[in-house]
């Protein structure tokens, strides 16, 4: 049985990915700061097939402790796929002149530092697999910007660079790719107290050449594709409904 580890697994893309792979017959490991969200997942998944740990993946000590427990749980088995999904969902930080260093660091640590720490810890476990991969969840904001998203964009741009750096260094044993999600509706994949149903305007859908907003399932399916695509590494895949290819003018 294959095993996947997903950071930021409690809600949104992480939750959808964890459940998608469990539905495919994989064992799943989830890390998240949100203990309430993990408790919901723990109640829904067999303990023999799911390990869900509360962990701030931007902090070295917490990552070290979590991976010690993961190693025990795996015993001699391999970790086959690591998904570095954690991050601060809200990209807006306000005017640059008002952005504190501590706030900047929170965005960087939640995404970029976390990916470094978890990838470093996961390498020995991934090297046991016959077909190991890492998928980093970046963002279309790594390559295009909206106002006042400085720290988020920098974190995701750094994650893009880390992706190709790891690909050339960890191969051929471990392939490393990134997904850049565009507008993804995460409401149906939040924990119970924060769950919501999509309510999109026609103009929201019309911004996308495919005619709809993205879903968390779209990203989970793309992760599965990248894991199985054995001749792909160091790549950055936009999953955005074509939005980054369409020029949009204010009317």
UniProtKB/TrEMBL annotation:
PROSITE patterns in alphabetical order: ADH_SHORT
Record has Oxidoreductase as a keyword: yes
A Gene Ontology molecular function term of the record: oxidoreductase activity
Lipid biosynthesis in keyword set: no
Protein origin, superkingdom: Bacteria
EC number: 1.1.-.-
Record field: compositional bias (Basic and acidic residues): 192-209
Pfam families: adh_short_C2
Alphabetic keyword roster: Oxidoreductase
Region listing for Disordered, in residue ranges: 187-211
Record-stated family: Belongs to the short-chain dehydrogenases/reductases (SDR) family.
Record protein name field: SDR family oxidoreductase
Lineage, uppermost ranks: Bacteria, Pseudomonadati, Pseudomonadota, Alphaproteobacteria, Sphingomonadales
């Amino acid at each position: 049985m294959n095993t996947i580890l997903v950071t930021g697994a409690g809600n949104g893309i992480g939750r959808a990915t964890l459940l998608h792979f469990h539905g495919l017959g994989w064992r799943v490991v989830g890390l998240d700061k949100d203990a309430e969200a993990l408790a919901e997942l723990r109640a829904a998944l067999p303990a023999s097939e799911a390990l869900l740990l509360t962990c701030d993946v931007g902090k070295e000590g917490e990552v070290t402790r979590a991976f010690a427990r993961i190693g025990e749980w795996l015993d001699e088995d391999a970790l086959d796929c690591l998904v570095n999904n954690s991050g601060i969902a809200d990209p807006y930080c306000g005017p640059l002149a008002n952005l504190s260093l501590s706030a900047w660091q929170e965005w960087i640590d939640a995404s970029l530092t976390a990916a470094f720490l978890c990838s470093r810890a996961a390498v020995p476990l991934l090297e046991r697999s016959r077909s190991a991969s890492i998928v980093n969840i970046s963002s279309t904001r790594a390559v295009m910007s909206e106002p006042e998203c400085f720290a988020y964009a920098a974190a995701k741009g750094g994650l893009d660079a880390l992706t190709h750096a790891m690909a050339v260094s960890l191969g051929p044993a471990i392939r490393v790719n990134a997904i850049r999600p565009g507008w993804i509706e995460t409401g149906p994949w939040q924990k119970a107290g924060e769950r919501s149903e999509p309510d999109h305007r026609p103009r929201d859908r019309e911004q996308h050449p495919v005619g709809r907003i993205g879903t968390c399932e779209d990203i989970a399916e793309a992760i599965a594709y990248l894991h199985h695509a054995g001749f792909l590494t160091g790549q950055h895949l936009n999953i955005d409904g074509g939005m980054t290819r369409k020029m949009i003018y204010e009317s």
